Amino acid sequence: MKTALSAALIGLLMFTAEAGLAAQAKRKAPAVTTVLPLDQWVTVNPDGSVLLGNPAAGVKVVEYMSYTCPHCARFNEESHGELRGGMVRGGKVSLELQPFLRNEFDLIASLLVTCGTKDKWFGNSDAVLAAQATWFQPPADPGYKQRWAALESNKPALRKAVARDLGLVKLMQGRGYAPAQLDMCLADETRVKQLMAMTEKAAADGVNGTPMFKINGKLQDVFGWPQLRPLIQNTLLPPSAI
Fold this sequence. Notes:
Blueprint: H1 5-19, E1 42-44, E2 50-52, E3 59-65, H2 70-88, E4 93-99, H3 104-113, H4 121-130, H5 132-135, H6 144-150, H7 155-165, H8 168-173, H9 179-186, H10 189-204, E5 212-215, E6 218-220, H11 225-236
Helix pairs in contact: 3-4
């Protein structure tokens, strides 16, 4: 991961704005609060990833995802009802989220999503993805460039400034968090190292983009819900039924 944060962040935001990411806001966003009782059935794995559903499920799906990836936001929207509401809720499928850090914005969003108690993490993730087109663009105040540059040597302070400038702190306050709690999570260097280690391991396992998926430990050559759905369904079926 690059250490020159402010220049990379500014450049990435400008590129994203020019590419028209804000146009995603026109799409209907998924509900940011889940209606699934199973969302209380959350396990934090030893590596720091989070699993939803039955840990003993016969079909284990891992999603490698990025909070700045528009395809990840689309996958979350398209798969939400059937994957979580049907497959995971039924106890036969579990869903594990593995943050894959493509840039410093992903790190900041991941630190906020996994702040506080584990039962809120999936709802936090939904909220950040649903609002992606709103927060992942240059702040309206042009002074953000100077603020970020001045904090280049203080990474925790820089992360806090970026999170506020992008509106992520306000978004998380709407999820019931206090700014002081969010600041603590943004300054958690142990969690930073954990997230970076997950990304490095995923890359070593062949993950080179987002979203990517594993089913029962095998990396799949599909990148969206329409392609992943039948693979999960086929895995659910007994061999004689395929």
